[in-house]
Amino acid sequence: MSEKIVISPTSRQEGHAELVMEVDDEGIVTKGRYFSITPVRGLEKLVTGKVPETAPVMVQRICGVCPIPHTLASVEAMDDSLGIEIPKAARQLRELLLAAHHINSHAIHQFLIAADVVPEDLMVTAINSVSEIRKTVQNVVDMVGGEGIHPSDVRIGGMAQNLSEVARKRLYARLKQLKPKLDAHVDLIIGLVADKGFPEGLGVHNQETLATDVLYGDRTKFDLERFTEIMPESWYDDPEIGKRACSTIPLYDGRNVEVGPRARMVEFQGFKEKGVVAQHVARALEMKTALSKAIDLLGELDTSASVMADFDVTGTNKLGIGAIEGPRGMDVHMAQVADGKTQFYSCLVPTTWNIPTMGQATEGFHHEFGPHVIRAYDPCLSCATHVIVLDDEDRSILRNEMVRI
Amino acid sequence: MVLGTYKQVVTARSTDKQIQKIAQDGGIASALLCFALDEKIIDGAVVAGPSEVMWKPEPTVALTSDEILAAAGTKYTFSPNVWMLKQAVRQYGLEKVGTVAIPCQTMGIRKMQSYPFGVRFLADKIALLVGIFCMENFPYESLRTFISEKAGVDFDLVEKMDIGKGKFWIHTQDQVLTIPLKETHGYEQNGCKVCLDYVSELSDIATGSVGSPDGWSSVFVRTDGGDTIFKQALEAGAIEAKAINEGKFGLEMLTKLSTQKKEKAMKVIDERKAMGLPVPFKASSEKEGDPLANV
Questions:
Q1: Contact A111, A189 (CB under 8 A)
Q2: Residues A211-238: b if buried by 16+ CB within 10 A, e if exposed
Q3: Which strands, in side-by-side order, build the sheet including B167-172?
Q4: Would you list the domain boundaries of chain B?
Q5: In this structure, what DSSP letter does residue A368 have?
Q6: CA A338/CA A333 separation, integer angstroms
Q7: CATH classification of A41-356 is 1.20.1050.10, yes or no?
Q8: Is the C or the N end of chain A the one with fewer CB within 10 Å?
């Protein structure tokens, strides 16, 4: 006798999603389905027909949680389409910006899972530790990106400005000082996750991992030929869910995959662990990778170097790809520019890759662990939350028939 | 209230011979910023530095005394310093910023501090705001036009400009020319006609030549922060001060000019309101209480 457990919306994540689990008599999940219940984003359509510079500014608004990866993926896609080779210092600044953002975003996630893994007597310590780290790394984002949330200085062709020497030295010193604190924080989180005593094998699945780089992203590692996208109706075997799910299902070599910190560590650092604990550990360890990279970059950066390439925005309609490793996984933006206007734009955002895998990962354990499995992916569905409010009075949103174009 | 709120008003000048030589009057803005920088009260300043074009200032982030001094002296056209503040705390990484601003910019900065839209983490990083007296300001082309056409001097030959005694003074290598201020009217930017602030009423410390003898400046110390810095600068001997002349050529003159500016602007504001045109302030002669307290 199977029963259905529905969690809607799933909590402590960005955006709205639903987890539907079929369970047996003992409460063990036999079939897990996770899907987004937020209407489609329309930003790709908004930027087409406009000048290429519009795209990064608009698509960074896809999400307030990871605006940095979206901005970077967007400018990288445009750079690629327009055939721009950006200066070395600009590349360093972009990498620095993303490294700082990784630390910040992972810290936010650790705050979100605090209620799950941190005992009450350590709560204040853990939260203070998260705050301290975020404060320091957001300072880097502010200075390099020009704005802490929607970075204004990341531009097609490079960056709007280089850092001053004073800022470089200051940030270098601060990040060096942060190192012992971050190390202690990582140990704390890994220790707390271990102490929680998740059952062995929770969240383990056999899907492949997909990542393009240790931390930044590399468009040459993303093979568009191997990518396919199907509609939810043909993915979910429950027609009702197929109809309600709002995100498409991206497949690599015809299979669903896992992206994110664990995927990056598996692909590039020989990480072997799987499951919920492994994801938390990978995420925490990646903060160390990001910090040491940020420190290196600040040490190497030439603050007198040019950060903007000369380029022509006319374009040749080449399909440009920007692949950025966001905190939650690979974020790919694709753009085509011709006649000085964006002709085509498409985003393949991190959590979209994870959605089909996440439900599957809940299977084989008691349904009470379902939310823990979901949260371990740090899902962020706000890439899909952009809707048009039709009427401010009754707050009605985009009509369903418009969503289903 | 016509001169804004202040803790004290004095006549002062920089004791530094180098500053005295290059400054417009008493060199108060330069002296205060250099002193604050040396004492680490600020870690940099946004100033109207030189650009590639003669007499066209460019907002510059000064990190050394030399860079501050390179910006000494009054330029009678705009330097959009407020625009550079954000860059100073972002790319330049400053945390205690000093700046020099004319009254409209002072108002802008204070408003920005109260409503920091688009300027996150900037409001609390402004450590010293030196305001300067300002009756009106000229667009660059206006300035160039009346200097080359009315005074008949090539712009590039001008070494110093000044306003005083009802005239616009132009100093070149070998001559001093004047244009009556009446003739410069109409060249000022439009916004100046509705501006109610002559003595940078919202600054930390306001300074200008009017009310003090040549080579000295009148100084209004307005805020607690400004008071602390000014006292420290006095004690350290960076600045010397004496009592201001309360009479006709001192405070009375300042009061008269400030009142005139306010009354004139309120008239324009009233006219614009009557015509249904927008004005940047709610202030007008109909304001309850003391209309002259309008800023």
A1: no
A2: bbbbbbbebeebeeeeeeeeebeebbee
A3: B158-164, B167-172, B176-180
A4: 8-137+191-293, 138-187
A5: G
A6: 17
A7: no
A8: N
Q: B44: nearest CA in chain A?
A: A166
User: How near does any CA of chain B get to the CA of A58, in Å?
Assistant: 16
What is the reported pTM? 0.85
Contact status of A162 with chain B (Cβ, < 8 Å) = yes
CA angle centred on B164, ends B159 and B165, rounded to 5°: 135
Give, in words, the CATH class of B138-187.
alpha beta
ipTM above 0.85, yes or no: no
Tally of CA atoms within 13 A in the half-sphere of A81 that contains its CB:
35
Instruction: Locate B154 and state its tokens.
Output: 């090539």
Mark residue A209 as left, alpha or beta (left: phi above 0; alpha: psi -120 to 50; beta: remaining).
beta
The CA distances from residue B233 to A81, B39, B73, B107, in Å, are: 58, 10, 20, 25
Classify residue A298 as left (phi > 0), alpha (psi -120 to 50) or beta: alpha
Q: What share of chain B is helix, strand, coil (3-state, %, to 5)?
A: 35, 20, 40
Q: How far apart are CA B199 and CA B217, in angstroms?
A: 12
Mean pLDDT by 10 residues, chain B (295 residues): 92 94 91 96 94 90 94 89 92 93 94 89 94 93 88 86 87 89 88 92 95 94 96 96 92 94 90 86 65 66
What residues in A contact B63, CB-CB < 8 Å?
164, 166
Q: How far is residue B162's CA from residue A64's CA, in Å, rounded to a whole number? A: 51
What's the gap in Å between the CA of B203 and the closest CA on chain A? 27
